Amino acid sequence: MKTKKIAAIGILLLSVQASANKFEGIAETPPMGWNSWNTFACDINEELIKDMANVMVSSGMKAVGYEYINIDDCWHGERDNNGFIQVDATRFPSGMKAVADYVHSKGLKLGIYSDAGDKTCGGKPGSNGYEYQDALQYARWGVDYLKYDWCNTENLKAEGAYRTMRDALFSAKRPVVLSICEWGDNKPWLWGEEMGHLWRTTGDIIDCWDCEVDHGTWSSWGIMRILDMQDGLRQYAGPGHWNDPDMMEVGNSMSVNEDRAHFSIWAMLAAPLIAGNDLRTMSVEAKNTLTNSDIIAINQDKLGVQAFKYKVEHEMEYWFKPLADKSWAMMILNRGEKSQKVHFDWKKEDVVDPFFPVEGNKYKTNFINSRFQITDLWNKRSLGTTNKALTVEVASHSVVVYRLDKISNKDKH
């Protein structure tokens, strides 16, 4: 009898393990939204969150695809006598469910933050040992997205810690996007697809073009530094599982050209588009950058393939991204300090995606035998077709981005 009981328990445990999974069918394109950390850090409260939800609607951001209002660190109070996490009642006097209900009333979704360690990066209660209780609490509140950080995790293994939270969320039965935020230290691109919907590939971003800010035991990175850290990762991403080079700094302190380049790079990388500025006070230029629907369409393309760097000429980089309808996106990035005029002869370029085969053939433009309509996505104008070579001047710290829509195979005309 005892043996039968042990066997039955074993079968039950295996059944529970087999049923644990991440939620499928969400984040099929890179998530779009806003996060509090880059601008406000721990200085958050419920009125701020409601304001951001209001402006996400009134600014037109919701209309072009933004949907998540994500509360980062420092919303936490203490745990109750049963171990369930509570909100800071001073910052969120109405409670988190009321905030979630408000965000949902705007047609948006609410994101929240926790940490795999005993304490968050801001010193608040972490989820270590309380994963299932926290997941149940988030479900009760109506949370739709969890950013799960990696501070104070000295004796934990990343893959196991994120699996535990994945299973806890799944057991709570409310679909939640799980954002793995362990900064790329444990190569999450190798295991992240099974655990969550996106994973950070680097340490924290900072609003500068090309810099490192040394904090002693860790660094913050500028846009170009983070771009370079994405080398070799694109083959791991796709619908439902994305490389995450961190939240955006558009609208914080960089120039208009730098903001446009930053936004374009994230779009080409099929990265989550999570704004990090104060939406209430953003300039017209920042709003126009964040709501460029043509650039967003490149990011949200259902094929879900990241761009690849095709070639480099001094400080000029040429990037291509295959799209679902056999179209392409092309970005020319000027990393340098001076404007540069570039010449691109389509007939002499054989652009082939090095990683992703389609029915036995790699994605390839075949510019020699095919003709494409060229649309400038920042200046909103047609540039003719690929029958004629492209000559364009690209400003310093800036980009040009084109959509190439296939018209025909030239040998049929």
Question: How would you describe what is shown here?
Answer:
The structure is a single chain. The protein folds into two domains: 22-299, TIM Barrel, CATH 3.20.20; 308-412, Golgi alpha-mannosidase II (Immunoglobulin-like), CATH 2.60.40.1180. Helices cover 26% and strands 27% of the residues. It is built from eleven helices and 22 strands. It has helices spanning 2-19, 37-40, 46-58, 96-105, 131-141, 158-172, 192-195, 223-228, 256-268, 284-290, 293-299, and strands at 32-35, 68-70, 76-79, 85-87, 109-115, 145-149, 177-180, 198-200, 212-214, 219-221, 242-244, 273-275, 308-313, 316-322, 328-334, 340-344, 352-358, 361-364, 370-376, 381-385, 390-394, 398-409. The relative contact order is 0.11.
Summarize the helices and strands and which ones pair or pack:
Layout: H1 2-19, E1 32-35, H2 37-40, H3 46-58, E2 68-70, E3 76-79, E4 85-87, H4 96-105, E5 109-115, H5 131-141, E6 145-149, H6 158-172, E7 177-180, H7 192-195, E8 198-200, E9 212-214, E10 219-221, H8 223-228, E11 242-244, H9 256-268, E12 273-275, H10 284-290, H11 293-299, E13 308-313, E14 316-322, E15 328-334, E16 340-344, E17 352-358, E18 361-364, E19 370-376, E20 381-385, E21 390-394, E22 398-409
Parallel strand pairs: 1-2, 1-12, 2-5, 5-6, 6-7, 7-8, 8-11
Antiparallel strand pairs: 3-4, 9-10, 13-14, 14-15, 15-22, 16-21, 17-18, 19-20, 19-22
